[in-house]
Design brief:
Layout lengths: L9 E6 L11 H10 L5 E5 L6 H9 L4 E7 L6 H14 L4 E5 L1 H5 L1 H5 L6 E4 L17 E3 L4 E2 L2 H7 L6
Parallel strand pairs: 1-2, 1-3, 3-4, 4-5, 5-6
Antiparallel strand pairs: 6-7
């Protein structure tokens, strides 16, 4: 954990369990952590190393000074924790902004944002867009490569019925 002057913008980064054996190094979360080093106070919860990651997430969020939760997710096993944990966070801590990144939200943005428990998604590698996301307004999808944010009207053209 890293301490900065203002702790009201703390970030919790969560890597859901991806395997029941041989834990994987959470490179995506570590990459995001390195991109916000010195900008935001953050903690990492790795679902592959915790018997009950929800206990640790809940304990951190109960501290009351987290503004953002970043969750990475691939289709398959990671969704088994990513979905119910994001729902619990939305229910118990509605002021916290939930940001999803990874393969699943990048390929299924409409499904993820229509879920009602995700505020933003990052499409593609998030090292450039995650650090500036809290200061941006407008669209709910961030395209990492160009820091391009698409307005709802453009998204509706490609994804009819997309939230505006």
């Amino acid at each position: 954990m890293h301490h900065l002057q203002c702790s009201m913008n703390r970030v919790l980064l969560f890597n859901p369990r991806s395997a029941n054996y041989k834990p994987r190094i959470p490179n995506s979360i570590l990459s995001i952590a390195s991109s916000i080093e010195g900008l935001y106070d953050y903690v990492i919860v790795d679902g592959n190393l915790e018997d009950d990651p929800w206990q640790k997430i809940h304990r951190y969020l109960n501290e009351g000074d987290f503004a953002y939760v970043g969750i990475t997710s691939m289709p398959g096993p990671q969704l088994k924790q990513a979905i119910p944990y994001a729902k619990k966070i939305r229910e118990l801590f509605p002021a916290i902004k939930i940001i999803w990144g990874g393969y699943f939200p990048s390929n299924q943005p409409k499904v993820v944002l229509n879920s009602g428990f995700v505020d933003f998604i990052i499409n593609g590698p998030g090292e450039r867009s995650f650090p500036v996301l809290p200061n941006r307004r407008g669209s709910k999808i961030f395209f990492s490569y160009h820091l391009q944010i698409l307005p709802g009207s453009v998204l509706n053209k490609y994804f009819p019925g997309f939230p505006k």
